Amino acid sequence: MKSLKTFILTFFLILSISLSAQNVAGVNYDQKYLRLEFEVDPAVKYIKGIITFYFEIKNNTSTLSFDMGTGIGVDSILYKGNKLQSTKSNNILIVQLPGQLVTGTIDSLSIYYQGAPESDGFGSFTVSTHNNVPVMWTLSEPYGAKDWWPCKQSLDDKADSIDVYITHPKEYKAASNGLLISETLTGDNITTHWKHRHAIAAYLIAIAVTNYESYSHYAQLENGDSVEILNYIYPENVDYIKTQTAVTPEIIEFFSKKFIDYPFKNEKYGHAQFGWGGGMEHQTMSFMGSFSYSIIAHELAHQWFGDYITCAGWHDIWLNEGFATYCEGLCYENGLGGQNWKTWLADKIDYVTSESGGSVYVTDISNENTIFDGRLSYAKGAMVLHLIRGQIGDEAFFSGIRNYLNDPKLQNGYASTKDLRLHFEQTRGKDLSELFNDWVYGQGYPTYTLSWGQNSDNSFYMEVKQKQSHSSVDFFELNIPVLLSGG
User: Fold this and answer.
1) Is a pLDDT exceeding 50 seen at residue 20?
2) What's the pTM?
3) Which of 37, 90, 133, 247 could cross-link 50 (Cys pair, CB 3.0–4.6 Å)?
4) What's the chain's average pLDDT?
């Protein structure tokens, strides 16, 4: 996710979120397949839906729980054709099963619900207009999925696959994750079916509806695969935005060479325009408020870093945002995008050092402002990656990233800072715990004073002093490059 003018996400900002919103449902089951059926009209802030969960029981239980916001309510819950009882408290829906399900059982149920969703955070369910035309969109990061559908929004359990059915007035088009399968007209409505056959976190599932016009670009990967880049754009902006999105194929080709192939290449990538002030990396289709080169590169990079492998907790959001920010810079370093690489680096360093403290690791995840801190989670996260690259060398750095992305324990799942560190340690053959402790968990940065001289016998001497900007780190252990030239 990235804001339009700065990395600090402030639009629709809620400064605090109750602890009950933070991923406490669903501890006794693993979700498998989801069938999501929604009825929406972009002129009305209301949703009606049926969510069918397929799940596997982890521990013997007679209840199942789901995250569910206050703006929506349950009509009924069906299990094997029978209605189940439920209660709701503190944004948690607890469903009473007719008996105990034992560990290993694979089963399903359907939740019928409706309501006027609240729009917490960055506007989890928003109805607005563009050019006097209604538009609705969702943006669930970090805790907003529960506002518009009953779900399991924890960062430890992805759905294996999803089908999304969006019923909407026939004059509109609907955007979502995966492949467009069909648009079926029934009376005055169209039901749009999107199919996604990759693991996906709840906050990355999204829908948007308005009078979109669509067009495609295509990227060609080295192995010959072609990736469609499907764009859903407001009609009044198509001609201009088409010239901006034309850069997407070269970026997807570059990231595929630098890391691994685009993770969802058998489906699509795409953009859907929406009215928020930045971009959001919904899996296979980023929602975009603007289309600058940096935002296109940033949201696309998230498909590898954030979607394919997702941070295992909002404490480690830098694994999403630091990587996506650094990938912008990698484009510039490699001659793409038209921005000077050294200028980009200098700007990020100036931003990071504009304050003396702050850690990349987020200690307060009840506050969206601290999770998505532009200086720390984005800019400092990116500069920590660049620092690691400088300390271990390009070969170990990029090999470590590719091994991280290819790790079967992490693929299509979740990763922590420790997981990334271990992969860098394996490729470099060196313990990096001190570096990570200083730069990820510690605060601040060092400044250096260097003095040198030449004695009468032509011997050379040099003294380097380090001063830390914050007391949490007593000394930054870094290799410092020094160039000596002369006779």
Assistant:
1) no
2) 0.94
3) 37
4) 94
User: Which residue, chain included where needed, has tokens 């715990």?
Assistant: 433
In this prediction, what percent of the chain has a pLDDT beyond 90? 90
Collect all residues with Cβ–Cβ distance below 8 Å to 123 and sequence separation of at least 6.
11, 12, 137, 139, 144, 276
Tokens of 57: 């029981």
Q: Enumerate residues 6+ apart whose C-beta is below 8 A from 260.
A: 304, 402, 405, 406
Convert the pLDDT of each residue in 318-344 to its tens digit: 999 999 999 999 999 999 999 999 999
Residue 333 has φ and ψ, to the nearest 5°, of: -60, -30
Are residues 141 and 280 in contact, defined by beta-carbon separation less than 8 angstroms? yes
For the chain, give every residue range classified as CATH 1.10.390.10: 315-439
| CA 141 to centroid of chain Cα atoms | 8
What CATH number labels 2-312? 2.60.40.1730
Q: List residues bridging with 61 in a β-sheet.
A: 101
Q: Is 322 exposed, middle or buried (0-12, 13-18, 19+ CB in 10 A)?
A: buried
